[in-house]
Amino acid sequence: MNNVKKVTEGIYWIGGSDRRLERFENIFPIPEGVSYNSYFIDDEKTAVFDTADVTVADQYMENLKTALSGRKLDYLVVLHMEPDHCSLIDKVTALFPDVTVVGGKQTFVFMEQFFPESRDYNKLEVKEGDSLSTGAHTFNFVSAPMVHWPEVLFAYDSASKALLSADAFGTFGALDGGLFADEYDFEKDFLEHSRRYYANIVGKYGVQVQAALKKAAGLDIQMILPLHGPVWRKDLNVILEKYQKWSTYESESDGVIVVYGSLYGHTASAAEAVAASLREKGEEGVKVFDVSGTDVSYLIGEVWRTKKIVLMCPTYNGGIYPPMEGFINDMIALGVQNRVFALAQNGTWAPVTGKMMSEKLTNLKNVNILENVLTIKSALSAKDAEALNSFTDAVHSA
Ligand code: FEO
Description:
Elements: E1 5-8, E2 11-13, E3 16-18, E4 23-24, E5 28-29, E6 34-36, E7 39-42, E8 46-49, H1 57-68, E9 75-77, H2 83-86, H3 89-95, E10 100-103, H4 105-114, E11 122-125, E12 131-133, E13 138-143, E14 153-157, E15 162-164, H5 186-189, H6 191-202, H7 206-217, E16 223-225, H8 236-247, E17 256-260, H9 266-280, E18 286-290, H10 296-305, E19 308-316, E20 319-320, H11 322-333, E21 340-346, H12 353-361, E22 368-369, E23 374-376, H13 385-397
Parallel strand pairs: 8-9, 9-10, 10-11, 15-16, 17-18, 17-19, 19-21, 21-22, 21-23
Antiparallel strand pairs: 1-2, 2-7, 3-6, 4-5, 7-8, 12-13, 13-14, 14-15, 19-20
Bound molecules: MU-OXO-diiron.
MU-OXO-diiron (FEO) binds next to helix 2.
């Protein structure tokens, strides 16, 4: 069954939702699914902006044929040449051999790399400042490098005042029937997915996102049409303000996350004691995570949300417990900034991870690593009450 949805006059959504893919990019678990958005322009000339992932190929092709309603396709615009959006280029161009494929210089380089066996498409190379008219609609191209690949373009339609924003403002989460963000309770249904998507996929490129936001600020944008998740036609500031915070590495809340590694439950027990003590001191929004049992992408999402991060880690093979080391490495790779870190170390004969974690965390910009390290010898006990109290005092007052 086709699933074509009207976005606004002359623009239709023809994408698909995938609820079977276990991991996005074969890394990030997506139990909530994901949508691949593609937009069809019904105008004097017909156009499609991006295709979709191969996982929704049948649905996509059915939607495209339905939207075209017997017309031929004039333009296939490729704003982002990553396979979750470009996998069906070959299928579309095979069906419409006269179509003109529109993209940036680098788009076509990547296209040849991904589809070396493809026939020669009709190509139209565009760059920032160029425009494409389909009749009533004129799409102006804006370069958005590293949001989050280097070839990315945005397109702004001066007729509908819609910004086709590629991955920017996208989110994990399949669409549950509705197309628009205002058809959902965004905070409840999508915010966590949106933050996790941003932090893990775009998070490293805050400077480039800032540059794209500055360009967007110069446009009269009434709608945002991303490549994943719902379309924004109301309250655009909700997502724009989140992007402003996320891309400047500003936390959303003053809460604390306590992330622990624990072989036998003793550091876990200490983490519960730290969390309880923080609550008693009035710290709100304390959340505790087992680093071994929580996919790191969720931890990264939480790091983008909150200000203070407590890491509690046993020694393992003379070093940092591997899942904790993986989490810290991910924070470094993504360029986390402006956070407070408090460290606790556990060791039966060599509690040394406080110093090791601290050394790694100094790779991050603008972070405050508290000097007060909580040391646990095997298990936290009543004799450690003063040390625990002093540790949580330091976290609370940071
Ligand atoms: Fe949704 Fe960067 O691909």
